[in-house]
Amino acid sequence: MTKITFKKGNDFYEQVYQVVSLVPFGRVTTYGAIARYLGSAQSSRVVGYAMNNSHARVPKVPAHRVVNRNGMLTGKHFFGSDNAMQRMLEAEGIIVENDTVMSFTALFWDPAVYLL
DNA sequence: AAGGTGACAGTTT
DNA sequence: TAAACTGCCACCT
Question: Which helix (H) or strand (E) holds A2?
């Protein structure tokens, strides 16, 4: 009886990575949306925490497409340079100004809506 | 084993 | 309207 246990990152983490990987090119989503889609609407902080380890993940999850509910790049500091996250987003056609995604509501991709 | 931390979010001043 | 406070849940020391 071998119960598979992940030393780090429960299913929750895996699911977070999964959802983030599904965010389409040029779109963004929020921590809260992901948490809600996974059934834990109040675990948004945990989602952010999961992203912390996302860099160690392969394939690398597009963590730059995840922002907070205001469209603010709160996690930009976790990318090499301070404006690395912004540049990645801009490379996808997303306008970032003052650490905030412009037209955020239009670019917002809600997994609960587009995912089954 | 217990307490502290955080890439958030919602509510209250 | 903007700033501050509180709840939340998994991880780390």
Answer: none
Q: Which nucleotide is nearest to A42 (CA to C1')?
A: C8
Task: Respond yes or no on whether the N-terminal peptide bond of residue A59 is cis (omega within 30° of 0).
Answer: yes
Task: For residue A101, list its beta bridge partners.
Answer: A96
Query: CATH no. for residue A32?
Result: 1.10.10.10
Q: CA(A52)–C1'(B6) in Å? A: 10
Distance in Å, residue A42 CA to nucleotide C7 C1': 9
Cα gap A85→A64, rounded to integer Å: 6
pLDDT of residue A4: 36
Can you give the pTM of this predicted structure? 0.90
- Give the total number of structural domains in chain A: 1
Output the pLDDT for position A56.
87
